[in-house]
Design a protein that fits this description.
By secondary structure, the protein is mainly alpha-helical. It has a 5-stranded mixed beta sheet with strand order 4-3-2-1-5, with helices on one face. The longest helix has 24 residues. It is globular and about 90 Å long.
Length: about 600
């Protein structure tokens, strides 16, 4: 089995919100994680939670660390959930507790086919639901096949059945009633069911059968029109629009793959124009725009023909200003060219369209690695482009070249510098290149300062940390702090015990969560500031009679009380609180007992 990648606690903090990390650490310490197994790049575990059955967690890894995560819990509030944090902490802190098992692909690689058949039959006997899945995967191999195993005719698609399926999804159902408490989940579930139909179309597209794909897509898309799709929309849920975008891409690729007559293409153009017009009433970037472009221009558009032949002199791919979906449409063309193994045409089009990521990826896939490296060194425009090439080089076993391109990418302007630096930090560290990893860690922090980036740099700096720490903090002091990044900057200053800098941000940025973070950390070191800041937060709540927010006002006064008690000013604080709950606020009957309870709490200490 491949060597297990190193995952630092800073890396875990980087993918979780602070609250999720803290709760996940509690879950780890309480021993709620069990059945932790690693098979190849997959880490699986069960985590006891609030439900009867444990939550199932899956982590996908590679040599640089965390690739993807999933959990059966309903958490959807940014970053990973506490259950995934607990599993990752188990991986980081208690590696000996993890069962190391070979990947299934290795288990079956040399197995006897007859034995595998017996295992499959036994699996279906114990899990009957797998039977339909297996049948759907094997059926294309048996239907419409000739003696030599090839297919001589298109599958017969029952379009009426597809229409009925879509209609059933659009109607209120018992299944949807199961999510009546969560309309977002209901919409997501319904759209995912439509995705099963879309997958049938993609299977045909991947088999270079655009005609069959269109036979599936036409009734699927048509039944959603005339505003029927609104049954699958809710508030700001984007599920149905994301689905429409996927259908648009599938339609475009199918149209560019299918061998259609002029009449059939004209019919599709009329149909797609009508659908696009309807959706244009709901969004400035209506679905079906890419597919309509495919129906109108196809492969016969002269600028495209010239570019694919390698003639770029004076060619304008759009003969004017490109539309909003220009890149999406070019990528659709590239997908079809790649599927049909038209490599040189693919490369010519990708280079002409300045899609560097696709261009260098294809070069590497074709074994033209040195050419990709040379091109990258002279033509990369942004850290994002560099990250694409470095990942491809790593996947094709060119680690040294990947490091060099990544380092070059950090010298470029443009988007993605923090992401590239974080990738290089982990990758270089896994290769034992500490100096490169530390350099990348510093760039990552400067590009996007956060507590996780600060701690990751500390882990790599070792005995050089005092010097590196001073450089990081000096850089952060000189930056403008907006409300969007105030919390991240404050967390760094508090961790570094640079309390004056944290207070300065809290004074400048009108964000109660930032003030709370600072006050909770500095009340014993800066009691007067804490008292004044907490009063400033509590008083408007009380004066305006915001009864639903009284608990927050009391929390602010409690923090102020901690500061007052630490400096021997408890009597002054108590008098202030008693004055707050006096006659002027007596009518605020919900507040007075809360304040009396707060004073009593302090007096009992």
């Amino acid at each position: 089995m491949a060597q297990a990648p190193v995952i630092t606690e800073a890396a875990i903090r980087d993918v979780a919100r602070p609250q999720s990390y803290e709760r996940g650490e509690d879950y780890y310490e309480y021993g709620t994680v069990s059945e932790v197994t690693r098979r190849g790049d997959l880490l699986r575990a069960a985590v006891e939670g609030s439900q009867y059955e444990p939550y199932q967690v899956q982590i996908e890894l590679d040599e640089t660390g965390i690739v993807d995560t999933s959990c059966s819990c309903p958490y959807d509030h940014g970053g990973i959930c506490k259950h995934r944090v607990a599993v990752l902490l188990t991986y980081s802190r208690a590696p000996d507790s993890i069962s190391q098992r070979p990947p299934v692909s290795e288990l079956v690689a040399d197995a006897d086919p007859a034995e595998l058949r017996d295992l499959l039959v036994d699996l279906v006997e114990h899990h009957p639901d797998f039977a339909a899945w297996i049948e759907s995967r094997l059926e294309p191999a048996h239907s419409d096949a000739t003696a030599d195993g090839s297919s001589d005719q298109r599958p017969d698609i029952n379009q009426e059945s597809i229409r009925r399926h879509v209609q059933s999804v659009l109607q209120p159902s018992t299944r949807r009633g199961l999510h009546s408490h969560d309309p977002y989940a209901a919409v997501k579930t319904d759209v995912e069911e439509l995705g099963d139909l879309l997958n049938q179309a993609w299977a045909a597209i991947e088999a270079d059968d655009g005609e069959t794909a269109l036979d599936v897509l036409e009734p699927l898309a048509d039944e959603l029109m005339d505003q029927e799709w609104l049954a699958l929309s809710y508030d700001d849920s984007q599920a149905i629009f994301e689905f429409f975008d996927e259908v648009d891409t599938a339609l475009a690729e199918a149209l560019l793959t299918a061998d259609l007559s002029e009449g059939e293409r004209a019919d599709w153009e009329e149909r797609l124009w009508r659908w696009e017009q309807e959706m244009g009433g709901y969004t400035h970037h209506p679905p079906h725009s890419v597919a309509l472009e495919a129906a109108q221009r196809g492969w016969d558009f002269e600028p495209i023909q010239r570019v694919m032949r390698g003639d770029r002199s004076g060619v304008d791919l759009w003969e004017g200003d490109p539309p909003w979906y220009a890149e999406d449409f070019i990528r659709v063309r590239l997908n079809v060219l790649e599927r049909q193994n038209r490599v040189e045409e693919y490369l010519n089009l990708a280079e002409a369209a300045d899609l560097i990521d696709t261009y260098v990826t294809m070069l590497v896939a074709e074994g033209r690695i040195d050419e990709a490296i040379e091109y990258g060194q002279h033509n990369l425009y942004s850290p994002d482009d560099a990250l694409t090439l470095t990942k491809v080089l790593r996947e094709h076993n060119r680690p040294r070249a990947a490091l060099e391109i990544a380092q070059h990418g950090l010298t470029l302007d443009g988007t993605g510098k923090a992401k590239l630096a974080e990738w290089l930090r982990a990758w270089a560290n896994s290769m034992g290149e500490r100096d490169i990893a530390l350099e990348a860690a510093v760039v990552a922090f400067n590009a996007s300062p956060s507590l996780a980036a600060y701690q990751a740099t500390e882990e790599l700096a070792g005995e050089d940390w005092p010097t590196v720490r001073e450089e990081l903090l000096q850089t952060l002091v000189g930056r403008d702090t907006t409300q969007r990044v105030a919390r991240q900057h404050v967390e760094v200053f508090l961790a570094a015990e640079q309390y004056d800098e944290a207070i300065s941000i809290a004074d400048r940025v009108p964000d109660a969560t930032v003030v709370e973070l600072v006050a909770d950390a500095v009340w014993d070191e800066h009691p007067q500031w804490t008292i004044d800041a907490c009063k400033a937060q509590a008083e408007p709540i009380i004066e305006q009679g915001q009864s639903q927010q009284y608990r927050h006002a009391v929390d602010w006064l409690e923090t102020a009380g901690n500061a007052a008690a630490a400096t021997g000013e408890f009597d002054e604080w108590r008098a202030y609180v008693q004055g707050t709950s006096g006659t002027d606020h007596y009518r605020k009957y919900k507040l007075r007992p809360m304040l009396d309870e707060l004073i009593e709490k302090f007096e009992e200490r």
